[in-house]
Automatic annotation (TrEMBL):
Job description of the protein: Involved in coproporphyrin-dependent heme b biosynthesis. Catalyzes the insertion of ferrous iron into coproporphyrin III to form Fe-coproporphyrin III.
Native organism taxonomy: Bacteria, Bacillati, Bacillota, Bacilli, Bacillales
Record's protein name: Coproporphyrin III ferrochelatase
Residues the record lists as binding Fe-coproporphyrin III: Y13, R30, R46, Y47, Y126
E.C. number: 4.99.1.9
Length: 311
C-alpha cells in the first residue's frame, strides 16, 4: 500500500537572489510602490556589505526546507512528506507553493512559518494568504501558528547562549555580561490588539534564561521599519548606548531569538551595524549563532508539523 503524501508549505519572508533583483523585491515589500533612489541605495548597500553582496538567506532557507523534508520522512516513515517553499516577498510566493502542491496531486497539507512566534502581522499574514489560495483550489491545509516553547527549540537556543558566553574571557558571566534577547520590531499598534507576539517572545527568553541560569538579561528590538508610526522598542543600538553610559556594562551578548537563520537582520543589523556602535563605545558585543539547519531546530519543526497531521 502506498504511503499517504503530505505536502508541507514552508513559509518565510523571502529575499532577492542577486543585487539586480533588489528593486523588484523592495517594490513588492512596499505593495507595488517603487522605492526612492535613496531607499534603494540604502538597501542595496546593506546587501553589498554582507560578504560583498552574497545572499545567504535564500540558500539558508533552501537548506532548511530540504533538511526538514528529510527529518520528517526519517521521523515518520508511515507517511511521505514533500516540502514546498512559499515566500512572502519573492518567488516562489506563498500562493505559488500552494498551487504547486495541488498540481502535484497533494490532497492534505500543513503550513508552517520559519518564525517561532505568532503575530497577526507576520505569521498571521502568511497563513491568510496560504489559506485563501488553498480554499480557492480546494486543498485541505492546517497551520502551525507558533512553536516558541518547544523543548528542543529552547534547548538549541540555550546551548548557543552557553557557548557564546565562553567568548568573554575572564568576565564574571553572572553579573558583568548583559544578555539581550532580540526580535524583529513591529509597529506599537499591535499592543492594543491582544496580539501574542511580545508575550511569546518574552516566554522564550524566560525559558532560555531559566535553562542557562542567566539572571542579568533584558529584551530588546531591532530592524524596525522606516515608517511614520512608532515601533516597538528599545532598539538594540539604543540599549548598547544605555547600558554602557548608565550601568557601566561593557560586555553584551545578543541572542536574536526571533530569527532562525543568517540573513540581513542578523548579518547586517547585528554583525555590522551593532558592532560599529560597540566599537564606538569600546564595548565587547557578541551574538549567538543562528539556528539555520541545527538538528534540534529541525526536530522542533518536524514535531510541530506532525502534530497537525496526527491530530
Amino acid at each position: 500500500m502506498s504511503k499517504q503524501r503530505i505536502g508541507v508549505l514552508v513559509m518565510s519572508y523571502g529575499t532577492p537572489e542577486s543585487l539586480d533583483q533588489v528593486e523588484a523585491y523592495y517594490t513588492h515589500i512596499r505593495r507595488g510602490r517603487p522605492p526612492t533612489a535613496e531607499q534603494l541605495k540604502d538597501l542595496t548597500d546593506r546587501y553589498e556589505a554582507i560578504v560583498g553582496g552574497f545572499f545567504p538567506l535564500r540558500e539558508n532557507t533552501n537548506k532548511q526546507v530540504k533538511s526538514l523534508e528529510e527529518r520528517l520522512n526519517a521521523d515518520h516513515p508511515d507517511y511521505s512528506f514533500v516540502c514546498y517553499q512559499g515566500l512572502k516577498h519573492a518567488k516562489p510566493y506563498v500562493e505559488d507553493g500552494v498551487e504547486q502542491m495541488v498540481k502535484d496531486g497533494i490532497q492534505q497539507a500543513v503550513g508552517i512559518v520559519l518564525a517561532p512566534h505568532y503575530s497577526h502581522m507576520s505569521v498571521g499574514s502568511y497563513i491568510k494568504r496560504a489559506r485563501d489560495k488553498a480554499d480557492e483550489l480546494g486543498l485541505s491545509i492546517q497551520f502551525v501558528e507558533s512553536y516558541h516553547l518547544h523543548p528542543q527549540l529552547i534547548h538549541a537556543l540555550s546551548v548557543r547562549v552557553h557557548d557564546a558566553l565562553q567568548r568573554f574571557d575572564g568576565i564574571d558571566k553572572s553579573s558583568d555580561i548583559r544578555v539581550v534577547f532580540t526580535a524583529h520590531s513591529l509597529p506599537e499598534s499591535i499592543l492594543g490588539t491582544g496580539d501574542p507576539y511580545t508575550e511569546q517572545l518574552l516566554e522564550t527568553a524566560r525559558a532560555v534564561a531559566a535553562q542557562t541560569g542567566i539572571t542579568n538579561w533584558q529584551f530588546g528590538w531591532q530592524s524596525a521599519g522606516r515608517t511614520g508610526v512608532p515601533w516597538l522598542g528599545p532598539d538594540i543600538l539604543d540599549i548598547l548606548r544605555t547600558v554602557v553610559t548608565e550601568e557601566q556594562i561593557r560586555n553584551v551578548l545578543v541572542c536574536p531569538v526571533g530569527f532562525v537563520s543568517d540573513h540581513l537582520e542578523v548579518l547586517y543589523d547585528l554583525d555590522i551595524e551593532a558592532q560599529q556602535v560597540a566599537r564606538e563605545l569600546e564595548m565587547h558585543v557578541e551574538r549567538t549563532a543562528s539556528l539555520n539547519t541545527d538538528p534540534l531546530y529541525m526536530e522542533t519543526l518536524s514535531d510541530a508539523v506532525y502534530s497537525k497531521v496526527n491530530g
